[in-house]
Amino acid sequence: MKRSLWLLSLLMALPACEPVVETFDEEMPCQLYEAGVKKQAPVPGNTLLVMTWNMRFGAGGKIGWFGDSCGDRVILGADEVLPVLEQIAARIEAIKPDIVLLQEIDIDAKRSAYIDQVQYLLDHTYLNYGVYASNWKSQFIPSDGIGRMDEGNAILSPWPLDDTKRYQLPLRTDIDALTRLFYVRENVMVARVNIPGADNLYAVSTHLAANSTDDTKQRQMDEFVSILQDLDRKGKRFIAGGDLNLVPPNADSTDYCMERACPGDRYHGPDDDPFHLEGANYDLEISWLNPLFDEFLPSLTLADYKADEKKYFTNAQINSDWNSTLDYLFSNSEWVPGSHQARQEAPESDHCPATALWIIPK
Amino acid sequence: MFQILHLNWIRRLGVAAGLTLSAATYFAQKPLPPEPPYFFSNTAYTLPVRRGGFSLLHTSRYAISPRVELGFHPLLIFLSPDIEVKWKQIETSRYTLSSFHSVNYVSPLLRTVQMEGAGGFVSPEFDMPEMFAFQNGALISMELRKGHHLTGKGLFEFSVHSAPPDERSTIDLPIVFPRSAVYYKGYGFIAGAAVEGRLFRRFGYLATSDAYFFPKGGLDFFSESSLCLIWQTGKRFMLLGGAELTFGEYPFGSQWHLLPVVDFRWFLRI
């Protein structure tokens, strides 16, 4: 009898078991979202407007969050996050993209007041459907007061999304095992967008490692390219984009240590250790985007980029000017030439949205 | 872009806890003269005078008179000074009733875990005020049948502080959150029951269930239920192992957790 009670108690408790850190399967479905109230989806014309945006979890472009800027802020209040989300929703409403690829979007994180930002954007824009894939999920991160975290990538659209998949990208290998356990696990997420007249169209969103100093990003890029090749081989049209954390192969500048340095930091001196700011020097990584440019069609060609680099910068440090291009859109089908825009008028993040018109194949 | 988290301290803490438990088990094996019945849980009964019941993770207790027992947390006493007083009020053949009073000064502990890097449970961006929590209530214990004792408790707790703490400075974890909620909610109630008794030979059991209620700003509810096996390795030493199931309404929503419970209790005459 006593043994039965023990077993019964344990069985009742088992459903409660949830890992402290989510480590993810190699391939798994994404989380599906729908707007609370559905809006009438627009009738598509000959093109689709596609947007990619690293939205910095609603922290805006001015708050100095400790992990990505020189600030000391960690936990933001709802009174800080909600106004930024309102601006992001207004920006999306103004640009009116048909497919939105998002990075650094939180759904259940203490740092952003536990606001489900995917649901917020669906409920405050014309967008009806969303899919989300975590890349950093932990019940508690015992460092810097970060606490609970669920951050990831998302795809939003006025049209239904299905056939989703989250692919795990290689983890950073330049950090110790325990740190890696609690660290970001970048992903590539894929979803079919059911747009009338655009059959078999898939949207792909990703965010590659920001601060790796070894070949992690190259291995992630290889996997990303392999996923796109697979879609292409299967005859699927895709629109892929995200924050690739790599500058274009023909960029004038490949070193951003001084632009991103905090007051008092020193780099590039004979006694400076590290010599470069982590994740701010692209000398060794400059060719890692080539496979994407070689195999697929970029919304921003390297020639267009070279003609006016500043016009296409998508990244900035808080309270400073845009100074590098890290966000891209690719497809295996045509873009409207010259339609790529870096929406630098948007101050709602340390990245600005990048948009381009994609031609719906006949 | 994210900062690297250095977490080697978790390994060190695990090794230290393991060594302490092993040493305590070894040194407590000597044969001893007959002793009064000891309980792992906090019953309404009091220990014999000048006897202490010491633990690593649970509250340690020490009897200063036949009716009064003091309690303190052995690990947290230096960072989160606390003192509990259990005062036996009524003792009959059927039941024992004790009043319970405690005060806890939590601010130094919260400031200690407010740091950059590993071990930072609370963000250093918050000013942590001086905060005290007081608990008052009653414990009642009775023997259900020989060797099996039931204890019920009801407590009211409230806090006073030099300034209201920032609501974002909470540690949203089971066990921790319900115990610190009083500092953010102002007051709350705790009700609980525990059954402890012998199973066979040197083995016993402990089943507990506690509920926390914080009515201010919408009722928040937490519960903790545990089922543990007690191994009485010597006359005055017990090892406890089992599981605790918790439920809580945290700032992010409701969540269940299943947690392991391991501890010892060492009864000493001082």
What does this structure look like?
- The complex is a heterodimer of chains A (362) and B (270).
- Chain A is globular and about 60 Å long.
- Chain A has helices spanning 2-13, 78-95, 117-123, 177-182, 216-233, 257-260, 290-295, 302-307; strands at 27-28, 31-34, 47-54, 99-106, 129-141, 147-157, 161-168, 187-195, 198-207, 237-243, 297-298, 315-316, 322-324, 327-331, 341-342, 354-359.
- In chain A, the strands form 3 sheets. Chain A has a 7-stranded mixed sheet. In chain A, strands 2-5-6-4-3-16-15 form a 7-stranded mixed sheet, with helices on one face. Chain A has a two-stranded antiparallel ribbon with strand order 12-13.
- Chain A has one domain (29-359): Endonuclease/exonuclease/phosphatase (Deoxyribonuclease I, Chain A, 4-Layer Sandwich).
- Chain A is an alpha+beta fold.
- Residues 1-11 and 27-33 of chain B have low confidence and may be disordered.
- Chain B has helices at 8-27, 107-112, 176-185, and strands at 51-55, 60-63, 68-72, 82-91, 96-105, 131-145, 148-161, 187-200, 203-214, 220-234, 237-250, 253-269.
- Chain B is built from 3 helices and 12 strands.
- The termini of chain B are far apart.
- Chain B has a single domain (8-269), classed as Porin (Beta Barrel), CATH 2.40.160.40.
- A 12-stranded antiparallel barrel of chain B has the order 1-2-3-4-5-6-7-8-9-10-11-12.
- Chain B is mainly beta and 270 residues long.
- Classes of the chains: A alpha+beta (362), B mainly beta (270).
- Chain A binds chain B through residues 2, 5-6, 9-10, 12-18, 66-68, 72-77, 108, 110, 113-114, 136, 139-148, 175-176, 178-179, 181-184, 210-211, 279, and chain B through 1-8, 10-11, 114-126, 168-169, 171-173, 199, 205, 227, 243, 245, 251-253, 255-258.
